[in-house]
Amino acid sequence: MPAIVKNFPTISFIIPTLNVEAILENCLASIARQDYPREKIEIILADAHSKDRTREIGKKFGAVILDDNGKNMEEGKRLALRHATGDYIVFVDSDNEITHSDYLPLAVNALAQNPKALGVESYYLASPKMTSFCAYVTQLLHISDPMAWLMSANPKLVARDGEIERWILPDGTFSYPLGANGFVFRRADLQSVQADEKFQDTHVALFLMKNGKREWLRLRGRGVHHYYIQTLWKFVQKRRRAVVHFLRVQQEMPVNWMKEKPPVPLWLAAVYCVTFFGPAWHTLRGIFRDGDLRWLWHLVACPASALGNAWGIWTYKRRGHDKKIIADLQVKQELRK
Hints:
This protein has helices at residues 21-32, 54-60, 73-83, 103-113, 132-140, 146-151, 187-192, 195-198, 201-210, 232-252, 266-273, 277-290, 298-319, 325-328; strands at 11-17, 41-47, 64-67, 88-91, 96-98, 120-124, 156-161, 164-168, 183-186, 216-226. With 337 residues, it is an alpha/beta fold. The chain has a domain at 11-129 and 158-227: Spore Coat Polysaccharide Biosynthesis Protein SpsA, Chain A (Alpha-Beta Complex). The chain has a five-stranded mixed β-sheet, with helices on both faces. Strands 5, 6, 7, 8 and 10 form a five-stranded mixed β-sheet that branches.
């Protein structure tokens, strides 16, 4: 076990769940493999009344299981956050797998060395358990949607010290969805922006950046495998659900990183996704720059994104009042066999 962490502060993992037996054990096993004292780790599942083996699997790994009666995942995260006792909070989804066993000690050590940093962001790395499409949409895009990818400002690397990288956004913009999938926060920082009352994963980092903590950290080559979705059709369905969820959250708290001076406005990102030439240019650029043929998925993912997002808006207009809609629209996630 690395000797870089002193006194091993306590860490709380917060995981929203709903019928995720196919992927949850993979996630929790990666937490159990961490080079960190198990008694210092708390796992909290905010479970929206799963009907499968989700709760049984959580109990197997010693998780605290809370009943999430809310109408979206963010309410579950706020519920779990109010019960969390750790000095550090790690937000993971059930479709995440921590890539390296030293992720926790390195993240805690990095935040101790960089008190002005708002947290530690994961790299999204490919895995043999994901399809080439899943690897494209998570590792290559990093943001699991071409439209959001186009609207995101490109972070800048400030400095590198061993495994620790310091990142910042360009001046004049906060347009970057920061704060989910393996992100590590100090609990004190979350409390400073009242996250237990108004948590939404990308809102918290936005609030912290606006409060003066402009930098965040990454650990070189480490993060999570994000099993967002394995097929193109399920991606369309997933985008539908994500848009409905986003619009529901906007009802409660109209904070939106896409309005924080994005490099491309929403209407132009939508036009880009339904045309051929823009996606084709980025596809060719990605292949020549990275030597990675998985960029070919970009040609079909762009119109698929536009379709899924439009479908989500239409669904929200028809059923936005339905409390169970997020659960009804859940897309079954799985690992590649």
